[in-house]
Amino acid sequence: MNQSFEIAHTCESILSKIATDFVGLALQNREGPDVRWHYAAGNSNDKYKKITVRYGKGIAGKVISTGSPITINNFPENIHGKALEYPIMLAEKLLYAFAVPIFYKGAPKGVLLVGRRTNTPINKEEQNIVRQAAITLEGMISSLF
Amino acid sequence: MERQPVKNDISSYIIQSQEEEIKRIALELHEGVGQTLYSLYTGMQFIGNAVEQVEMKGYVSDMAELLEKTIQEIRLLAVELHPPTLTTLGLLPAMKSYLKLYTSTYGIEVELETSGKEIPLEERQRITLFRVCQEALANIARYADTVKAEMTFAWQFDHLSIIIKDNGKGFNIDKGWHQSTGLAAMKERMHLIGGEWHLSSKIGEGTVVELYLPFI
């Protein structure tokens, strides 16, 4: 099984393990600070393939710049900045998102995001499944750098 | 008796002052803060080359990398606030450049069609048209639920018309008008430069924004 297939399989398995609508994997570009969405499961369109976010911007950019998870509830209420600064939420019409960092050589280089199109947060147990999947993905993303 | 300023004059003054302030901040970021950070960055590289201690070299290199990211951020922020091409090259080149950024930000492709020869506009007109187009495109990203949009620039000898169209989900104009001030602001901005703004939308079929600017 090649790594791309394994990564896609891991994203899809999260979708089936927890009742979520969208799973996406974003990685910082090999060169430069920008971040792109590489894999998605449960996506309603292909917009994610064209979206590039800047380091520190959007959910993916913020998770990578801080190295910490981010939760968004009832988007676009109570967000920092404008709704337009959260392109993946708009593109996939998500109301809820939980995103965790993926580390490569000790530095946050990627993001695993799960989202719902209803404002229904995932529970602690489901959050742990996402965190565990992020750790699994850490061993797979080396080929992408 | 001294004439009281009319509402239009006040709105026009507020919008113009705001735009001038945005432009000033963008220039200050680009030419001021950006340049200073660049000097720091080159200094940091110089220190990095001179330092022999491996640990310290790595630390300096990390700081230089962070500075590089910050410089890029500052430059992009300045361009976002006020695209320099709007002043140097004109409305159409600035819009083409913005559309590239728009697609890479929201994943929505915009097909641009132009006809006629671009006629140089006053700065106030260029900025207004650019901002109104930006607002229309932002609405598509937020509400239209579509992967494609179309934009048409038609330059005639006596007017410019711009059409921004999407085949998204459309909306009820009466409701939208009451829920968002963005639509009214677009209309007001066009009115202040002597232009017209028309909106049509059908649920399930999409939305069309038409801008018309006569050359007096």
UniProtKB/TrEMBL annotation, chain B:
<dbReference type="Pfam" id="PF02518">
    <property type="entry name" value="HATPase_c"/>
</dbReference>
<feature type="domain" description="Histidine kinase">
    <location>
        <begin position="28"/>
        <end position="216"/>
    </location>
</feature>
<dbReference type="InterPro" id="IPR003594">
    <property type="entry name" value="HATPase_dom"/>
</dbReference>
<dbReference type="InterPro" id="IPR036890">
    <property type="entry name" value="HATPase_C_sf"/>
</dbReference>
<dbReference type="GO" id="GO:0005524">
    <property type="term" value="F:ATP binding"/>
</dbReference>
<dbReference type="InterPro" id="IPR011712">
    <property type="entry name" value="Sig_transdc_His_kin_sub3_dim/P"/>
</dbReference>
<dbReference type="GO" id="GO:0000155">
    <property type="term" value="F:phosphorelay sensor kinase activity"/>
</dbReference>
<dbReference type="InterPro" id="IPR050482">
    <property type="entry name" value="Sensor_HK_TwoCompSys"/>
</dbReference>
<keyword id="KW-0418">Kinase</keyword>
<keyword id="KW-0808">Transferase</keyword>
<keyword id="KW-0597">Phosphoprotein</keyword>
<dbReference type="Pfam" id="PF07730">
    <property type="entry name" value="HisKA_3"/>
</dbReference>
<keyword id="KW-0067">ATP-binding</keyword>
<keyword id="KW-0547">Nucleotide-binding</keyword>
<keyword id="KW-0902">Two-component regulatory system</keyword>
<dbReference type="GO" id="GO:0016020">
    <property type="term" value="C:membrane"/>
</dbReference>
<protein>
    <recommendedName>
        <fullName>histidine kinase</fullName>
        <ecNumber>2.7.13.3</ecNumber>
    </recommendedName>
</protein>
<dbReference type="InterPro" id="IPR005467">
    <property type="entry name" value="His_kinase_dom"/>
</dbReference>
<dbReference type="GO" id="GO:0046983">
    <property type="term" value="F:protein dimerization activity"/>
</dbReference>
